[in-house]
Design goal:
Blueprint: H1 11-55, E1 58-59, E2 62-71, E3 76-83, H2 89-101, E4 109-111, H3 126-173, E5 177-187, E6 197-206, H4 212-226, E7 231-236
Parallel strand pairs: 3-4, 6-7
Antiparallel strand pairs: 1-2, 2-3, 5-6
Helix pairs in contact: 3-4
Length: 240
């Protein structure tokens, strides 16, 4: 006679082993995820503070000569080391607004009290004076460049207006003139040692050629009207 063999399985042991395995995996994975998120957050914050200090290293007459990032579990902050006279409230507000554009909150900015020099005597430091003067010189150079550009643009517009007025006056004085072209040109002679020079060239198209006396009179008038000694007049018939 044969008896069936019965196998008794303890399901709770299997469940305990499976639960322990899941718990171990969670203990390994979760800290790794948090570490990755923290590394990305700190890297972004460090990049933003570097960009802020590089592009905006002055607050009024104060100069940011160094910075240091601080990170904790839930908070990131930047410590700014500043030299020079303390900035005004308005200058600070402007800096906070600029920092916000880089994703840095007001609460994340700390000015180092030990490095904030009070009073104009701070400028006696050679390093601070050099940094401050360099910043001021860059501003002056930029301002001069803008002024020269504005002056050039104003001169260009004035010359355009002068040329239009001269062209109309020529056609009024000489009814046979149907078209006037004015422009400043550079001339260069083939003679040895000759240098290039600038002169005004005036092209007039006429229905009937101007006689030499009229051309001489027109040339003299143009030199006075354009305030230019070097003026050439060329006449041609209208193109068909």
């Amino acid at each position: 006679m044969k008896f069936r063999l019965l196998r008794i399985v303890n399901m709770s042991d299997d469940l305990d082993r499976e639960g322990a395995s899941v718990s171990i995996r969670m203990l390994v994975v979760i800290p790794s995820v948090f570490s990755a998120v923290r590394i990305v957050r700190e890297s972004n914050f460090s990049r933003h503070t570097q960009q802020l200090v590089s592009n905006h290293n002055t607050i009024g007459r104060s100069y940011i000569y160094d910075h240091k990032n601080h990170f904790s579990f839930r908070h990131a902050s930047v410590e700014l080391f500043v030299a020079g006279p303390p900035p005004t409230d308005r200058e600070l507000e402007s800096f906070y607004s600029t920092a916000a554009e880089y994703g840095i909150k007001r609460s994340q900015i700390v000015f180092s009290d030990n490095n904030l020099v009070t009073g104009i005597a701070a400028l006696e430091s050679d390093m601070v004076k050099e940094l401050y003067n360099a910043s001021e010189q860059r501003k002056v150079v930029l301002s001069d460049s803008i002024k020269r550009l504005d002056d050039s643009l104003a001169l260009y517009r004035a010359q355009d207006g002068l040329c239009d007025a001269v062209a109309r006056e020529v056609m009024v004085q000489y009814p046979t003139v149907t078209r006037v072209v004015l422009g400043k040109a550079r001339t260069l002679s083939s003679a040895a040692g000759a240098q290039s020079a600038s002169r005004f060239v005036v092209l007039v198209e006429t229905t009937a050629p101007l006689v030499q006396a009229e051309l001489d009179k027109l040339l003299s008038w143009l030199r006075v009207r354009l305030d230019q000694k070097q003026v050439s007049v060329i006449q041609s018939s209208p193109s068909k």
